[in-house]
Design a protein that fits this description.
Elements (H helix, E strand, L loop, with lengths): L5 H7 L4 H10 L4 E5 L8 H11 L3 E5 L22 E4 L17
């Protein structure tokens, strides 16, 4: 089994985990659902470990599909105890950077 580490994750991606910690604490979330695209799913448990160390929340990992910000799981209202916060992770920018395209036109 090839377990991924938080340091491997940080070398490849900036998931802004400190912002996630801040939001969990700000919202006093007790149960947080984490949603990952397929490319980040191997890192899911190390993200949970990191967030557990830095918050008092419990976590669920959504292992269904995730194709972007509009792909929110349905039926979450039926989960008991209630999910307080959903965090979607991605490994691509929402909007492309055009700063490097200035000389291409």
């Amino acid at each position: 089994m090839n377990l991924k580490t938080i340091s491997e994750l940080n070398e490849k991606y900036d998931l802004e985990l400190e912002k996630v910690v801040f939001q969990i604490k700000k919202q006093k979330a007790k149960l947080v659902l984490l949603q990952f695209p397929d490319g980040l799913k191997p890192y899911a448990t190390c993200v949970v470990d990191y967030l557990r160390k830095n918050t008092k929340a419990d976590f669920l990992i959504w292992f269904g599909t995730c194709f972007g910000a509009c792909d929110t799981p349905t039926g979450l209202e039926k989960i008991n105890p209630k999910i307080d916060l959903v965090v979607q992770f991605g490994h691509n920018a929402m909007m492309p950077s055009y700063s490097n395209d200035k000389n291409k036109h």
